[in-house]
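User: Here's a chain of 99 residues. Predict its fold as tokens.
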Amino acid sequence: MTLEITAQARERLFGIWLHIKENASEERADKVEVRLLERAQELLEQPWKGPPERELASLNEGHRFLLLGRYKIIYRVIGQVIYVTDFFDTKQHPSRMRR
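Assistant: Prediction complete.
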């Protein structure tokens, strides 16, 4: 299996990093980014680890999620590829979740 982080997920991760940098520190932002990416890497060992994401169930595309603190790592498994589609801050309204 391979892990692919979509462009929109990378954009969202950068937004999280920037928010933390502006409200805490660059060091803290770097730490959170690394932890999120490491958590996503865990999917290579257990791709079905996360439960289905209820907020995206109506799309019928098999979205799942992993949690890390207040962040959800949204992903889909298609064949031999795990696509991370979003890094979602759960303090936001679920309608802002990206598929």
